[in-house]
Amino acid sequence: MAAPALEYHALMREMPSDERPRERLRSRGPDALSNAELLAILLRTGSRGENVVALATRLLSKFEGVNALGRASFAELCAEKHVGPAKAAQVIAALALGQRIMSAQPERASVRSPEDVFALVGAEMALLEQEHLRVVLLNTRNQVMGIRQVNKGNVHSAVVRVAEIFRDAVRENTPNIILVHNHPSGDPSPSPDDAALTKQVEEAGRLLGIDVLDHVVIGRSGPASLRELGLGFAKK
């Protein structure tokens, strides 16, 4: 009987420099990194046969996400393979600090209308010279959990990948999203491409169990809601 194949994980130094978490953090910022990659930076090193990203991925899987990992005890982390007291202390300290920052922040902004979206991002986006597509991540109370940029340039269904729109919502387990993009012309009137993209995204959201609450176009005169205009969204 043939021996089982061994799984191989490339060492960090074997990976292209632009794929290493630290280098990607430096060049693209933390929003471009997954939870596993951010955790890998905290862990710093892996071991023979398991690079640091693979180690981070295993820990997130074992503890079922970053929130549960933040509740793990020092002993529980130290009991994991390739995690010693130093790594356990680094992870616990970093996640505890993050929790303290969150608890010290004021109440999260809520989004319940196109005007709320405009108040959140409109002042900046109305002045952009290119189209930018962003996704507002919302919890069950429609409070803003984050804003992620998805695309820069032409915003229409032939260019934008639907998977990219939902990537962070799936990764961070947020149940609701709002699409928002700007029209550099200043006129927020939705185009046929805007409606087509909205239809495509809403259909994908239904399959993923993520509600697409609206698609808001930002212009210098204010916002336009595709849901309010009956464009792209299925009639209820």
Question: What is the strand and helix layout of this fold?
Answer:
Elements: H1 21-28, H2 35-43, H3 52-62, H4 66-69, H5 74-78, H6 85-104, H7 114-125, E1 132-138, E2 144-152, H8 162-171, E3 176-182, H9 192-208, E4 211-219, E5 222-225
Parallel strand pairs: 3-4
Antiparallel strand pairs: 1-2, 1-3, 4-5
Helix pairs in contact: 2-3, 8-9
Mean pLDDT figure: 86
Helix content: 40-55%
Could you name the ranges where pLDDT drops below 50 across 5 or more consecutive residues?
1-6
Q: How widely separated are the two ends?
A: 59 Å
Strand order of the largest sheet: 2-1-3-4-5
How many strands, which pairing sense, and closed or not: the largest β-sheet?
Answer: 5 strands, mixed
Give the class-level CATH name of the largest domain: Alpha Beta
CATH homology superfamily name of the largest domain:
Cytidine Deaminase, domain 2
Question: Secondary-structure element sequence?
Answer: HHHHHHHEEHEHEE
Shape: elongated
Please count the helical segments.
9
CATH architecture descriptor text of the largest domain: 3-Layer(aba) Sandwich
CATH topology of the largest domain: Cytidine Deaminase, domain 2
Whole-number tally of structural domains = 2
> Would you count the extended β strands for me?
5
Q: Radius of gyration, rounded?
A: 21 Å
Provide the structure class: alpha+beta
| Percent strand | 15-25%
